[in-house]
UniProtKB/TrEMBL annotation:
GO terms for cellular component: cytosol. InterPro entries: Flavoprotein-like_sf, FMN_Rdtase-like_dom, NAD(P)H-dep_reductase. This is FMN reductase, NADPH-dependent. Residues 5-153 form the NADPH-dependent FMN reductase-like domain. It holds the Pfam family FMN_red. Signal peptide: none annotated. GO terms for molecular function: FMN binding; oxidoreductase activity. It comes from the Bacteria.
Amino acid sequence: MTKNISVIIGSLRRGSYARKIAHQVIRYFPDGYNVQIVEIRDLPLYDFDYDDPDVSDKPTPEAYTHFRETIKASDGVLFVTAENNRTIPACLKNAIDIGSKPNSDVAWKNLPAGIISHSVGRMGGYSSQKNLRLALSYFDMPTPGQPEVFLGQSPSLFDEDGAIAAETTVEFLQNYVQRFTELVYAHPRG
């Protein structure tokens, strides 16, 4: 049975390193996985008025509904994110907030999650990953244990063709994807 994995990129820039990493990592999933990037660039800023039944003049945006339904139909979610000012990018926090409502039907609830963080510096997005884990912990989302993935000096990861250059990094990411897929099978939704 095919498993659906949503990949959420914590960057809006088309040429971002997070997007380049995501495109490489998608290739590491085994057969039987439908892995798709779920774009978050067009999600309006979260406003509870959209979900408040007492507010009748502000209907829930179609982009919210589509995003929530896509996440709820997923067997797992893989976040690939940069670090902005020692935390997660605003676009990613917005997506998390949108998926967290309405309270009676949270899209993230019990969804297995993988996290790959990066930074142009040496820390590999450590602060963003820890902040993301904190936000996701509220939804009982299982994640792979150690080792976590912090990719430092991300501009140097790629060769001239856009592939990840170091074989050790490729193997490390392949191993992480393998552990993530095992987690997805061990924690089916519903």
